[in-house]
Amino acid sequence: MTLLAVVGAHLDGQPLNHQLTDRGATFVRRTETAPIYRLYALPTDPPKPGLVRVVDGDDGAGAIEVEVWDLEPAAFASFVDAIPSPLGIGRLVLDDDTDVAGFVCEPFALHGAPEITAYGGWRAYRAATPG
């Protein structure tokens, strides 16, 4: 099995969660990243966040809510193959210092995207903003 941390549109109840459940993914837990990330609202359809790891000592970094899902290796491979740029899969450090595969964003996509780190996660941001 392969653990995958999701940050936004693939969270339970969000519009792309079916891309996990259709592949037989099982929910493991809701947790947070280590406080070494920034989160941005990307201008995509459907709306998605972009998560980037920051340089050590970045005062604007924070812990971001994530969900960890478990997929069979073939399901993980087909899921990753379908991810459009500017998103991709890298390694995320969780609040317990473990690391898992998870969504990351290419830096070019952050130009002009509002930073939403202070919300602590995609759900909180979406709940606080219209649309």
Kindly name the structural category.
Answer: alpha+beta
Instruction: Give the class-level CATH name.
Output: Alpha Beta
**What integer is the average pLDDT?**
95
CATH-assigned fold name = Hypothetical upf0131 protein ytfp
Regions with pLDDT < 50 over 5+ consecutive residues? Answer: none
- Helix percentage range: 10-25%
Distance between the first and last residues' Cα: 36 Å
How would you characterize this protein structure?
The protein is globular. It has helices spanning 18-21, 73-81, 122-128, and strands spanning 2-6, 26-32, 37-42, 48-53, 65-71, 87-93, 99-105. The chain contains three helices and seven strands. The protein has one domain (2-128): Roll (Hypothetical upf0131 protein ytfp), CATH 3.10.490. The strands form two sheets. Strands 2-5-1-7-6 form a five-stranded mixed β-sheet. The N and C termini lie far apart (36 Å). Strand 6 and strand 7 (99-105) form a beta hairpin. The protein has 131 residues and is α+β, with helices and mostly antiparallel strands.
